[in-house]
Amino acid sequence: MTRRRDLKITTIGAGYVGLVTGVCFSDFGYDVTCVDKNARKIEQLNAGEMPIFEDGLEALVKRNLREGRLYFTTDLAAAMPDTDVVFIGVGTPQAEDGSADLQYVMAAARELAPLLDGFTVIAIKSTVPVGTGDKVEALIREIAPEADFAVVSNPEFLREGAAISDFKDPDRVIIGTNNDKARDVMARLYRPFSALGPPIVFTDRRTSELLKYAANAFLATKISFINEIADLCEAVGANVTDLAFGMGLDDRIGSKYLAPGPGYGGSCFPKDTLALLDIAEKAGAQARIVEQVVNVNDTRKRSMASKVIDLCGGSVSGMTVAMLGLAFKPDTDDVRETPAFPIIENLQRAGATVRAFDPAAMAESKPHLTDVTYCSDAYDCAAGADVIVLATEWSHFAALDFHRLGEQMAAKRFADLRNVYRPEDVRRYGFEYVSIGRP
Ligand code: NAD
Ligand code: UGA
């Protein structure tokens, strides 16, 4: 690969976004230093060990470490000299009132301000409320009045589990700035993406900041919409799989994010929809659709246990539930806002004993759950169970041996909350079967 050492990059934060950003840019040939306050994370990365579960990441980290253009450190002051673009990729978690907590972003700005030397672009990759760029700029100006810099909004759209491919081959790159020098630097930075190249959309900073929330809220809206339609399908005897397929063939609608399930989770949609509501409220604007999207999702996550209880004849008291999947979606060990947890808690409250298996997320789940028996695979999990609940559509659960499962279970019941199977294929093995929005 041709080295592009004309631009030097520093990322503040080596989590999903900071790390993937840094590693992918280094793979394009840039010199990149990823800085994180978490010394353990930096130690692991320097040893070529991954602090997050992300397909393809380890190979990229190792290659770029070996080729000498990727560095990890806890020392921002050591990283900053000659940096052209510094990405802020720290967390913006949900505060008590639903707003985005900006303390980490502002702390990062405070730390980097005295270290600026020569024209530097400060690109905010964290998902931040409208006006955060203004605040960061004002803070840096106050600390370092002479510094030559521009604060740019450059939101990230990667998905966990597909982070590398989403980053390297994005649908678009959004860059929010009115500063011509910063615009040129960012255009140069993103030039090597691919021969054809994703559209690079330049806009102002506030539009770029809001665009990120609007995109996440729209995807969440599609999910809550199809989830309600799935309930309607159940009520009127229609089939949501065929319905979503038929709807999605219309280019104006699109087929993605129309898979019904137990509600959206993860570290992004739940917090970002709430943050959008907070932004709207503070601006005196209405966001009634997103308000309902959040309500529909919250209710759904809480009510999913009833589906399992109904399948078990109205009570799970004294029964054993085998939970397949704990992560909020496949290919990640992330359990933040996973629908699996409220399902488990509600089933336990209804008197059930819970066994669980997840290919990656069991260690992450342990601090959040009590009285759950963790199992070695789906078949171990099903041993003695009265019902299986498929909560996350890992590929590990896509071709289960129902004959073998049935032999282990006390009663043959299967709640397929991700519509992985065709009802007739499971019922053929003598299972009582329920799914989402299908007869
Ligand atoms: P994360 O919690 O995985 O990582 C944040 C990292 O920043 C942590 O390792 C933390 O130690 C470090 N950090 C905090 N303050 C620091 C400082 N002052 N100096 C150095 N390091 C510091 O978070 P994430 O999932 O990468 O998310 C980061 C932001 O990106 C959030 O705003 C999130 O909404 C957004 N985002 C996340 C995703 C995703 O898939 N996770 C996708 C798009 C956007
Ligand atoms: C999401 C967005 O997809 C990314 O574009 C964005 O960058 C990221 O949030 C962020 O801002 O941090 P992610 O949270 O990793 O990415 O996960 P998704 O794959 O989008 O799934 C989110 C949730 O929606 C999961 O619980 C998933 O099961 C659910 N989902 C998704 C459905 O229930 N149905 C669908 O059709 C699609």
Describe the structure.
The protein has 439 residues and is of the alpha/beta class. The protein has 2 domains: 8-203, 3-Layer(aba) Sandwich (Rossmann fold), CATH 3.40.50.720; 239-439, Rossmann fold. It has helices spanning 16-27, 39-46, 57-66, 76-79, 103-112, 132-143, 163-168, 180-190, 205-236, 240-248, 269-283, 288-311, 340-349, 362-365, 378-382, 402-408, 423-427, and strands at residues 8-12, 31-35, 70-73, 85-88, 120-124, 149-153, 173-176, 200-203, 320-324, 353-357, 372-374, 387-390, 413-416, 432-434. Strands 3-2-1-4-5-6 form a 6-stranded parallel β-sheet, with helices on both faces. Strands 11-10-9-12-13-14 form a 6-stranded parallel β-sheet. A two-stranded parallel ribbon has the order 7-8. Helix 17 (423-427) links the parallel strand 13 and strand 14 (432-434). Nicotinamide-adenine-dinucleotide is lined by residues 12-18, 35-38, 41, 89-92, 104, 107-108, 111, 126-127, 156, 158, 160, 267-268.
